[in-house]
Every structure is written in structure tokens, then in C-alpha cells.
Amino acid sequence: KHVTRPSQVHRIHESDVPQLKQLPLFLKEELAYEVYKPVICCHPFMRNVLSIDKTFISSICQTAMSPKSVMPMLDVFALGDECKAMYFVVAGELAYFRGLSSRPNALEGCTTVEAGRWVCEYALLMAWKHRGLMVTMQTPCELALLDAGAFLSVLRSWPLVREYCRSYAWFFVREAGSEFASQMTDLPISVEEARSLSDQAMAAWSQMEGFPINVDWAKTPSIQTTASLSKST
Q1: Residue 68 in 3-state DSSP?
Q2: CB–CB of 162/215 below 8 Å?
Q3: Predicted local confidence at residue 180, as pLDDT
Q4: H-helix or E-strand containing 118?
């Protein structure tokens, strides 16, 4: 449950209710699914994954998701830190400063990220270091973190979803073009762009005819969902 008064944003976590630890495993899995599925499936990529295999999303919700509460005016991550998760904003608001390592005196020039959005989606596709500073603003912020390592670990057991991820990664890098590395930030691409890339990837995945599976990934950033997984299967 959320309390959304201007001075307070709070989300009850599983650790706040000790009785939840006594639930049978299948009920814990269902609870995690109900809590996290609406959060992650706001991203078009995840919505398509849900349509491919609901049990994959259920497994992700159970094993790869975690809540994080951040009090006002604190850092969420800093420039140069290794990024190990994709962040979903559940409640509150974040401010992002590209290329900065410490909080400026004023919030001028920042980009705000509101509830219902996400950042650092690249962490699911490649080795990633933060390109700026992310901080909370005047109210606490509630986040849901999708651990990149756990995501990739689960992905190994779902070959159909893995192929869709390969397809999405390929279209993602192709769309970014030659300025891929220099233009990327921790901020997300637009919802429209994400939907377009997700739909293209879904169409290619569905047909699997003429799709360049044998892409020269050495010429792209280190995309884990393709390069590392193809070697392990």
C-alpha cells in the first residue's frame, strides 16, 4: 500500500511483515508476481516477454526483484559506479545529472524521473557503468530493482525468451547506430522507442526467417544476453 502525501512516500516491504516468511513457497511466488509484475511490465519489452512466457516473468519476480527505499536528498547511484540492476520508480521522484559525480547546489539542468518510469535498462543488455548521478528530491523514493545477474541466470533456462532478448538487443544496437557509446546515459529511451523496438524484435522472433542470428557481436558493446549466453548453451 502506498501513502502519497507530499511529505511522505512509503511502501510496505516483505521484510516489514514477518508473517510473510511463514507462507508456503507457492504463495510467496504468487505474492511476488502480484507485487512486481505490474511494475516491470510497464516496459514494452517486459510486456512482450510476458506474452511469450508468463512463468519467466513469475520467476524473475521471485528471484531477481527487490525493493529499495531511499530517503530525501540522498544519492541513488553515482558516476562511474558499476551498474548491477535496472531501476523502476514505484513512488516518488528522482533527479539525474549527466556527467556529474556530486550533487550540485541547485537542481537546474537535471532530468526528473517520475513514478512509473525506469532507468538503467542497458544493464540487462551489456556491462554498464553509470554515466551520471541519480538522487532523490524532496520526498522519499521507492524503487524496485531488477538484478541484472539474476535476470541473465534465469534467462538461461528459457530458450524462447532468450531468443527474443537476442532479437531485442540486436534491434536496440542497430537503432542506436554509430553514436551508440557516446550518446548513452542512464536515462531510458522513450516509451515510444521502446515499444517500436520491442515490436520489431517480437516480429523477428516470431518469424525467425531472414533474421541475422549470426551477428558479429564483437563489433557491438558487450551484450550479455547474446554473447555470454550463446557460449554457455
Answers
A1: strand
A2: no
A3: 57
A4: strand 118-119
Distance CA 13, CA 187 (A): 26
CA angle, residues 197, 203, 208, in degrees to nearest 5 = 120
Tell me the C-alpha distance between 125 and 166, whole Å.
Answer: 9
Starting at the earlier edge strand, list the strands of the sheet with 118-119: 65-70, 141-147, 85-91, 118-119
Q: For 1-33, how does the pLDDT look when each residue is reduced to its tens digit (9 = 90+)? A: 344 444 344 565 555 555 556 666 657 788 889
SS3 label, residue 194: helix
Percent of the chain with pLDDT over 70: 75
69, pLDDT greater than 80: yes
Neighbour tally for 177: CB within 10 Å: 8
SS3 content of the chain, % helix, strand, coil (to 5): 45, 20, 35
Strand partners, 71: none
Would you state the cell numbers that stand for residue 225, as one nine-digit string?
Answer: 544476453
